[in-house]
Specification:
It holds the Pfam family MIT_C. InterPro entries: MIT_dom, MIT_dom_sf, MIT_domain_contain_protein1, MITD1_C, MITD1_C_sf, MITD1_N. This is MITD1 protein. The protein is an alpha/beta fold. It has 2 domains: 74 residues, Phosphotransferase system, lactose/cellobiose-type IIA subunit (Methane Monooxygenase Hydroxylase, Chain G, domain 1, Up-down Bundle), CATH 1.20.58; 160 residues, MITD, C-terminal phospholipase D-like domain (Endonuclease, Chain A, 2-Layer Sandwich), CATH 3.30.870.30. It is 43% helix and 16% strand. It has 6 helices and 7 strands. It has a 7-stranded mixed sheet with strand order 1-7-6-5-2-3-4. Strand 5 and strand 6 form a beta hairpin. It is elongated and about 90 Å long.
């Protein structure tokens, strides 16, 4: 049985089916070890030891090869974007559009500060609204958006709830369901799409500077809005974590 398993391992190895080959090598080596322990023939024991050593060496080489391939794959599916202080040209469409493929139907937004409209220097509820508007313009066909954030403090909570409910109702008119959840311990800021892409922005959706005035360039068009310094990590995950 061990010989047949190892023969299969070699065939898979030669066909570059390394994951399957490694499994067969490991199973075959275990069977040879059992055979070696069961025999009292010293010549056979020596032959088993030689074969086990050879197959163990090859199995280790395959393990290293698989690790290197995984690292190469990771490097292809991870890139980092550095947004400099006062940089422009980083509106939501420019940042996310590449990853919003046609098969994206579900989005997870995790950001602890989707709060008051009038919060000092922050417009996070408006930012979230603009992010949702970007989703509606495709080419993806988003049906569900999951938002995980934290409650606003004090009197701001009722305004936060009212604004989020208005966004929820408005999205419903476009056939999109908004699920809202709250957590007091949330710290991470990340956005995930059900095609496997995850975008982690150091500042979350709030990487834009406050506009200088209601009629200043960049107030309406985020591509023209100066940014605050932050880092964006774009990662292709094998399984999208759900909240």
């Amino acid at each position: 049985a061990g010989a047949e398993t190892l023969k299969r391992a070699v065939q898979l190895d030669e066909a570059s089916r390394f994951q399957e080959s490694l499994v067969c090598y490991q199973e075959g080596i275990d069977l040879l070890l059992q055979a070696m322990k069961a025999t009292t023939d010293e010549v056979k024991k020596h032959r088993y030891q030689q074969k086990i050593s050879e197959y163990l060496t090859r199995a280790e080489e395959i393990k290293e090869h698989i690790k290197k391939q995984d690292l190469l794959s990771d490097s292809k599916h991870h890139k980092q974007i550095r947004i400099e202080e006062n940089a422009t040209g980083f509106g939501y469409e420019k940042l996310f559009r590449e990853y919003l493929t046609e098969n994206v139907s579900e989005v997870w937004v995790e950001d602890p500060y989707i709060r008051q409209v009038h919060q000092a220097s922050r417009y996070l509820l408006y930012n979230f609204l603009r992010f949702c508007e970007m989703l509606l313009k495709g080419p993806c066909k988003v049906k569900t958006v999951h938002l995980l954030t934290s409650y606003d403090e004090g009197s701001g909570r009722s305004q936060q709830m009212s604004a989020l409910e208005e966004i929820k109702q408005s999205l419903r008119n476009y056939g999109v369901t908004l699920n809202i959840n709250f957590s007091s311990s949330i710290h991470d800021r990340e956005i995930r799409f059900n095609n496997g892409w995850m975008i982690k922005i150091g500042r979350g959706l709030d990487y834009f500077k406050k506009p200088k005035g209601l009629f200043s360039i960049g107030y309406c068009d985020f591509d023209l809005r100066p940014c605050r310094e932050t880092t964006v990590d774009v990662i292709l995950t094998k399984h999208t974590k759900k909240m």
